[in-house]
Amino acid sequence: MAKKKKKKPMLSSSAQLGMIALLIPIAITVYVFAFFAWKELQTLPIFEKLEQEKAIEEIQQNFDMEIPEQYIPVYVAAEEKYGVPWTLLAAHHRVETRFSSMKSLVSPAGAEGHMQFMPCTFVGWQHPSCSGLGKGDISKAELMNPGTIKKYGGFGVDANGDGIADPYNIEDAIFSAANYLSKNGAADGDVKQAVFQYNHSDEYVENVLYYFNLYNDYHDELKEAVALNKEK
Fold first, then answer.
1. What fold characterizes domain 67-216?
2. DSSP letter at 186?
3. DSSP per-residue codes, 102-153
4. Do 197 and 188 form a contact (C-beta atoms < 8 A)?
5. DSSP sequence for 43-95
6. Which of 104, 115, 151, 190 is most buried by a 10 A CB count?
7. How many H helices and E strands in the chain?
8. In this structure, are residues 91 and 205 in contact, taking their beta carbons and an 8 Å threshold?
9. Looking at the DSSP assignment, which residues form a beta bridge with residue 106?
10. Strand partners, 112
């Protein structure tokens, strides 16, 4: 049988080496271009937003219940107005209504809304029907009227400027809680006293302070991450 002739390479060894030498800098150039293009893409708002979302998610893993992201700007706005740490407001919200996730926002004792105000505390204890635990005989119109609240020395706040101070409106409720806590010492650093005034129960104080300290470990990071994520 005749031996098959070996095919000669299309390129000589020296030509192949020359080709490789030519391709290496091209490959390096392509790699460098792709690297910097990817870095540039990462500065786009969509990538920055994803980074902030990842940061928020990693922080939230430290909590038994996630703090609803949409509430954090409300807490922060109330902090800026009343000097009460937003993490304390979040802790109260967590303990009072599990971040408003409960089926009813009215307690058996008669506390109402997202932050569970007794009507007399919300509209003011000077109301003629207020006594005892503070349920009173207060109509809805009186309860939510800023003028009535001012008259009777209550803590209800019309935070969104719609002319109504509504404990079932999240902004009004959070600002009202901040108002109450601020006037009872929280803005001056006496957080424990303020929490006790909110609910005269040592167990309640312990629960709120537990969440406050937990959230406070991430006070600045979570505040910044949510703010940046909201801007994107």
1. Lysozyme (1.10.530)
2. G
3. SS-SB-TT--BTTTTB-HHHHH-TTSTT--TTS-----HHHHT-HHHHHHHT
4. no
5. TSHHHHHHHHHHHHHHHHTTSSSPPPGGGHHHHHHHHHHH---HHHHHHHHHH
6. 115
7. 11, 0
8. no
9. 112
10. 106, 117
CB atoms within 10 A of CB 179: 20
DSSP bridge partners of 16: none
Output the tens digit of pLDDT for each of the chain's 232 residues. 555 555 555 656 666 666 677 767 776 776 665 555 445 544 445 556 667 788 889 999 999 999 999 999 999 999 999 999 999 999 999 999 999 999 999 999 999 999 999 999 999 999 999 999 999 999 999 999 999 999 999 999 999 999 999 999 999 999 999 999 999 999 999 999 999 999 999 999 999 999 999 999 999 988 888 777 666 5
pTM: 0.78
What is the end-to-end Cα distance of the chain in Å, rounded? 76
According to DSSP, the residues that pair with 57 across neighbouring strands are none
Residue with tokens 């920055």: 48
DSSP H or E stretch at residue 31: helix 13-41
Task: Kindly state the tokens that stand for 108.
Answer: 């058996």
